[in-house]
Amino acid sequence: METVTCPYCENNTKINPIDREHYDGEEEYECEHCGKCFEVLAETYTRYSACDKADCLNGGNHKWKQVVGYPEIHFKGRYRCEDCSTEYCSTEYTLQEEVVTEDELSKN
Ligand SMILES: [Zn+2]
Ligand SMILES: [Zn+2]
């Protein structure tokens, strides 16, 4: 058992460490005191810290932020929530990309 400080009520909350060696990632936990959900970042398999408040895990909206990188075309239309690790690709853009591919094929 490990404990993290809840970002909502600041009480120590018990969590079950993931049974995986050198696990590096984020897991969702529900605070035993206030019942709010938040993500816990596992920096190593023995050290845990709560990322931040995640209102989207408690019935709120995701805070979508465009993913940026190079080449730009691979990241266009990709969004990632600032609070949780959910990602989505804009379907509008995916359709556009398919049209371009078909057009290029017909040229060859
Ligand atoms: Zn709490
Ligand atoms: Zn979210």
Description:
- With 108 residues, this protein is α+β, with helices and mostly antiparallel strands.
- The chain folds into two domains: 2-58, no CATH class; 64-107, no CATH class.
- 19% of the residues lie in helices and 36% in strands.
- It is built from two helices and eight strands.
- The chain has a three-stranded antiparallel beta sheet, with no helix packed on it. A three-stranded antiparallel beta sheet has the order 6-7-8. A two-stranded antiparallel ribbon has the order 1-2.
- The chain is elongated and about 60 Å long.
- The structure holds zinc ion (ZN) (2 copies).
- The site of one zinc ion (ZN) has 6 residues, from loops.
- One zinc ion is lined by residues 6, 8-9, 11, 31, 33-34, 36.
How would you sum up this structure in a few lines?
The chain has helices spanning 72-75, 91-107, and strands spanning 2-5, 12-15, 25-30, 37-44, 47-53, 64-66, 78-81, 87-89. With 108 residues, the protein is of the alpha+beta class.
How are the SSEs placed, and which strands pair?
Elements (H helix, E strand, L loop, with lengths): L1 E4 L6 E4 L9 E6 L6 E8 L2 E7 L10 E3 L5 H4 L2 E4 L5 E3 L1 H17 L1
The structure holds zinc ion (ZN) (2 copies).
